Amino acid sequence: MADTGAALAPHIRVAQILLPCPDLAAELAFFTGKLGFKVAMIMPADAPALAVINGHGVTLRLEQQKTRSNQTPLTLRLLCDADALGGARAFTAPGGTRIELVPVQNPITIPDGTNEFVLTRMNADWGVGRAGMQYRDLIPSRLGGRFIASHIRIPNGGPVPDYVHFHKIRFQMIFCKAGWTRLVYEDQGDEFILEAGDCVLQPPEIRHRVLEASAGLEVIEIGCPAVHETFADQAMELPTGRNLRERDFGGQRFVRHIAKDARWSKWPTLKGDGFDSRDLGIADATDGLAGVRVVRAAGAARTAPAAHKAEFFFLFILNGALELESAKLGNHALNEGDCCVLPAGTTFALHTAAGTEFLEVALPADLPLV
Fold first, then answer.
1. How far apart are CA 277 and CA 360, in angstroms?
2. In the CATH scheme, what is the homologous superfamily, with its name and number, of domain 265-363?
């Protein structure tokens, strides 16, 4: 048999964690009595020196042997119901194994964040992330860990080596800037194509998978908090065969915004003339937590000077150019691929010529003005 992982994988039947212990009887009593493991095998019967035990998705092989003083003990983490945890959450087995009790469901930690101006220019600084996708960081400071915004692309078309997974997040959306991608979501019907101008809201913990992408796919992904857990779900198959459009996922509903079906109306966020927008439906699906719009200038357009008191106000230039004017922030010309975060409490104005389009993301949905 070849010694490569790919060749070995089909022949592996079970994995065991080896725990050497000086006193098998004491170790066995600890794991079966205190932690609820079950004996799968023990030998020899007259003077046991080895036991295999199963429990909580883990197989342990306990071997009685003298342990070396310089041997580093292993740590076994047991994920438990949070309401059952009390007292000591770490202790040591007779053989030296460290046992840690941790909640199976950790609450999402939302950092307080920072209030700062961020201006990111389009550049070639791309890194490789999950499933071979290329990432460009749009908010390098992450606003103190509260928000992340990424420009993601897949240069070569074809199947995407993704898997069914979900995210533990407060907010997450994906806007398709260029190309297309084929996606499937839990209880949202069959797989579908997300095209340029389309958007999805991924509510907390909805299972999903990226199946295929066109050459040159580009998407903008925004999430809160910046660092969040992504879990694989190896048991769920997608599609599920159900279409539950009103299903609640952590207080939010799934949204699939289709650009070609959208209606345009006057941009309500800032006072001024010449801007229209299409609402992507995220405000309604998140009960006002976040609002997302595509804004365009039908002609020469300008906003009145304004300042907001929201936690997050982000603009990404989809095409054309946008002029930002501010006595405090300075004057900046933003071109396609550029983006900015406008901090609370700072007065600014926007103006542009016909044809410019930009993506607006605000938390909360109704941007409160000073």
1. 10
2. Jelly Rolls (2.60.120.10)
